[in-house]
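*** Fold description ***
***
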Amino acid sequence: MKLLWLVVLSAVALAGCAGEDSLTLDEYADQITTISALYVEESQSLSLRYQRDVERKVGELTDAGGVALVTAAVILVSGETASYLALLDDAINRYVVSMSELNPPSDLVDGHAAYVEVVSSVHQSLPAMRDAVALSQSMTDIELALAGSGFADGQAVWTAACVSLEQDIRDLGRGADLKCVKPAVAP
């Protein structure tokens, strides 16, 4: 998946080097759709892998039993969650970079910039959530770290900005699917 991101980033960078001209509406819609699809595919894959790994490992702990089961489960879940969040942080960072390198048509400059700013702002809250999860001493601490984070709170703002940019593109006569509403990850 990282190789595919590098190819997309290279194509976007080369397109940017060709001149300071903005992309046509069709070029922009195609590129932003591709970049968004790659990010959503990667983030969903990470989430599914994390979910399955944690379930499998907690199942192994449960099978083993013992007095230290709860402590071991907390250590496992906090470690796995922190690892997952580090991978997600990397994926979002590449998404922000790719989106930042696009040169949208003049009618979309403001909407594009607003969207990138929202995603970047939400992204900046991820390290604090990851750190809080890593320091958790109980499952309740982990749940509170996830639910009470700026990252969790920012998801609605990210979605709203995404839907707004999609609408701006549609208003100009071209559709784009930025995957604003992500499907739930099933185990």
